[in-house]
Design brief:
This protein has about 350 residues and is α/β, with parallel strands linked by helices. Helix content is about 40%, strand content about 15%. It has helices at about 5, 35-45, 60-70, 80-90, 105-115, 130-140, 160-170, 220-225, 235-250, 250-270, 295-305, 330-344; strands spanning about 20, 75-80, 95-100, 120, 145-150, 175-180, 195-200, 215, 280, 285-290, 305, 310, 320-325. α6 (about 130-140) runs parallel beside α7 (about 160-170). Bound molecules: pyridoxal-5'-phosphate. Pyridoxal-5'-phosphate (PLP) binds near residues 26, 80, 81, 153 and 180.
Length: about 350
């Protein structure tokens, strides 16, 4: 029989988006250009699909390490960064996990899967994080692991270096800095990597969400230990060969990230000009808004075939909040027009 506490959970819900302008999941909206698509499909022909994938993935880890100025033995790959979060929660010594609130929901959910208690530290009204409060909660709970999403999802802001450094200096457990939105952010904290500090990244937001590939950067000894609980062959052959190909064409995706940031500024300016819309600054590929009636606006947009994320049900600081992913210029224009109409 399945554990009672698992039976009491709700499964992660992915809404049906067929036929809609999809601005709900922080995906990169650009499709591959014809030439690149052809060249990529061509490389897939080399895959021997009857064989298990390369289990060690040295070449891929080396390519990623070089981008970060690290060694291949400081990189561990996961089936999306979600899988790595699960490995960290499984492998870290028993004890409480501390996260800010609100933040990425999977830290909390996966902690429950592995029977790890969670303590949350409310963000300030402007979504900044108070390092002293965070550290007090860590000490009170004798916490062993903390997740800091930098920039944070769903608020979009990046906590200051001062805040992050203070937490790292004074917290006695493992700090996981989740940089899922690094391609769109002004700052990165990879220079803080140490035996008790790891940096998590994903390729999902860069245009390869369908590949399911994430990685964690850390101290070589910690990575070696974590590798002991990695599923053999966790990254399939098609993903491995595709990732190597896409990394060789990184300039395409880097340009797309710059275009997304440009669109973000344009969206931000248009949203700020609207009455009854509070817009929060973002260093990610989405924007958080607060409106008067989030449920009604979410439904109104959906009726106009635009799918965004309604955060209202989470309550607290997210009351009346909506999160919109930056799409293609036409999609963003459609969203802005529809929002103006439903706000009336
Ligand atoms: C902060 C953060 N970390 C990790 C992830 C998971 O990414 P992946 O697609 O690599 O599992 C997300 C997804 O939205 C996220 O927002």
């Amino acid at each position: 029989m399945i554990r009672k506490d698992i039976r009491a959970l709700s499964a992660y819900h992915v809404p049906d988006s067929s036929g809609m302008i999809k601005l709900d999941a922080m995906e990169n909206p650009f499709v591959l250009s014809g030439g690149l698509q052809e060249a990529w499909l061509d490389t897939l022909k080399q895959v021997e699909i009857n064989r298990y994938p390369d289990a060690d993935m040295y070449d891929l880890r080396e390519m990623i390490a070089q981008r970060e100025g690290l060694d291949a033995n400081q990189v561990l790959l996961g089936n999306g960064s979600d899988e790595i979060i699960q490995m960290l929660l499984l492998g870290n010594e028993p004890g409480t996990c501390v996260t800010p609130a609100p933040t990425f929901v999977m830290y909390n959910l996966m902690s429950q899967w592995v029977k790890r208690s969670v303590a949350t530290v409310p963000l300030n009204k402007d979504f900044s994080l108070d390092a002293n409060t965070f550290l007090q909660v860590c000490a009170r709970e004798k916490a062993v692991i903390a997740f800091l999403a930098c920039p944070n999802n769903p608020t979009g802001n990046l906590w200051s270096r001062e805040t992050v450094e203070k937490i790292i200096r004074e917290f006695r457990g493992l700090v996981v800095i989740d940089e899922a939105y690094a391609p769109f952010s002004e700052g990165t904290y990879t220079d803080l990597i140490a035996p008790s500090v790891m940096v998590l990244r994903t390729f999902s937001k860069m245009g390869w969400a369908g590949l399911r590939l994430g990685y964690v950067l850390g101290d070589a000894g910690v990575i070696a230990d974590l590798n002991k609980i990695r599923m053999p062959y966790n990254i399939n052959s098609l993903t491995q060969i595709s990732a190597r190909f896409f990394l060789q064409h990184n300039d395409v995706f880097a340009k797309q990230a710059r275009d997304i940031c440009h669109e973000r500024s344009r969206m931000m300016a248009s949203l700020m000009a609207m009455d009854d819309v509070e817009v929060f600054p973002s260093q990610a590929n989405f924007i958080l808004l607060r409106v008067k009636d989030a449920d009604a606006i979410f439904v109104g947009l959906k009726e106009k075939n635009i799918l965004i994320k309604n955060m209202h049900a989470q309550g607290g600081l997210l009351s009346e909040c909506l999160r919109v992913t930056i799409g293609l210029p036409d999609e963003n224009n459609a969203f802005l027009t529809a929002l103006r109409e439903v706000l009336l």
